[in-house]
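Bug #77: duplicate submission created two jobs. Keeping one. Sequence:
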Amino acid sequence: MVQIRVTRFCRREFERDVYRPGVVSMTRIVWGSLGAGLLLFVVAGLSQGLHVAVLLPPLAASCFIGGNTIYLRVARPKQVIVGHFVSAVGGVLGVWVGEAIAGGGNLAAATKLGVAVLFAAALMQACDADHPPAAATAAIPAILPMPVAWWLLPAHMAWGAVLVVVGSALWNRIWTECPAPEPETPRAWLGLNMEKSDIAGTAVCCLGFLLMCFSRLSEPVYLAGVVVITAGTVFLAFDHLPRAQWIRTQTSLENGGKGGR
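Kept job's structure:
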């Protein structure tokens, strides 16, 4: 049964047992909607003002998630940043492969769309960075002109994703922990509820974000930012591998993975 809560603004409305599907909170409707709208306004404004072009439709969906569903795993920093980065890579690859397969035929656009989302889905899952809005990041280059050179698009989408992550964290931490705690994270490192490697990778991405903000003032600084944010995102994309449990056979899976390392 759906529960509708009409209460005053308070921290209780943002606790995990209330902040869940099936609970409609007027407090969260107001706060989350304001946050999503303001965050996209900031992303679009800075993108235009600083000349760091991004694909706004997929980031709009990320703003909704960051403002309204922070307990979902797809809202976590790694998922947002890496998801958009690798999906941009998948979109570029999808355009190339789709053109090679279909050329200029009637199914060219459909082929590019399908291959782009295929690559994006595979990359996001391989990097443990599932973020549904990023599928649109892959799809848009297949049907519309890219806003920047193909080799810059992944870094630009990571730039926009960092802004979404930082903005949603600042907005939501007024009421609750953001990023939200996860059971497998043993302690809240620096109060961020993230693994140390995730914090390090996100910090590098934030540095790259700041350097890319100099796009209009200094091209060398901007390009250094592209390199830094790319390095930080690649680190985030693979930082789960040293901690991963490798399962190679069904028998090892049934035994809890003890024989599959």
